[in-house]
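Ticket closed. Logging final result for Methyltransferase domain-containing protein.
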Amino acid sequence: MADLQLRHRALRPELMDDHGTGGDSLREAHRHLQRLNQIFGAAGPVLYAVRQLWQEAGRPRQLSVLDIGCGAGDINRSLLRWAEQEGIELLLTLGDLTEEACAEARALYQDEPRVTVRQLDLFKLQPGEADIVAASQLLHHFDEEQVVEAVEAMVRGSRIGCAIGDIHRHPIAWAAVWLVTRTVSRNRYIRHDGPLSVAKGFRAADWRRVRERLADGGQLAYSWRPLFRYACWVRK
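Final structure:
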């Protein structure tokens, strides 16, 4: 890691960005990511952003959410619990580009009638796919131009807006992820992509540049969340 202060976003692709490879090793990586998501509180930012949009929309009693780039979809257990506590009739769709991720999500939610799993491409979402289109730890896979395109695709695919959770690029977060990934997993995806994900993460200035470039004057709001995360949301 040449830039020890992580002043600029890393541009190198992650192993998971190569969709021509996968198989058992990738499925194992999605299982190990569930543990890392729990350790680092990955569910919190997306839930926070969904709640902001839900409140701004008048607290509807029925809500549909599409989690795009869902991986195993494990972070959505917090969303399901929140919906139960608020008395919301929630319909949740988990979408990912890879069949390996979809297979893990189907296995995790096989007994949950509120959840549907579909193999989906973010950039091919149809208008109004769900009330809210959410993404957790997805946007750091893209360069700045692609991040803008991804946010606009999520907004187009929603009826209310999009909710985003992603990583704060910070040396402390990088060191913590480097150490934990080598403690909990021997999987090559986890060990390579974990620290690199932090180096590809965001700071407040990155989100401000994205906001300035959104079409139609899109108003992206963001909030720093515990354990070096950002919650972002765009109201349609």
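The mean pLDDT is 94. No further action required.
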